[in-house]
Please model this.
Amino acid sequence: MMRGETKLSYGYLIKSALMDQLGYDFYLKAKADGFKEAEEEFKITYPCSVCGQPIVMRPGGADHKGASNYLNSAGWGHSTCHSGAR
Model:
């Protein structure tokens, strides 16, 4: 079946083909593994000031807003803005 015949997204068609070929359990495991890998690559952590254990910063959380406010007040910005190129 061609995409034009179904009007389904390429992502949906690829996911369906993978599930057909490899099985739904394999698909779910691969998806979970990919999510874990991406999370490890991009998550921001900082140590607890009391116990030292890592805390994961979540977008929009109080710590995220605090970090954003601190960076802004400390003068952080785009290098092109600071150089006047922007």
Observations:
- The radius of gyration is 21 Å.
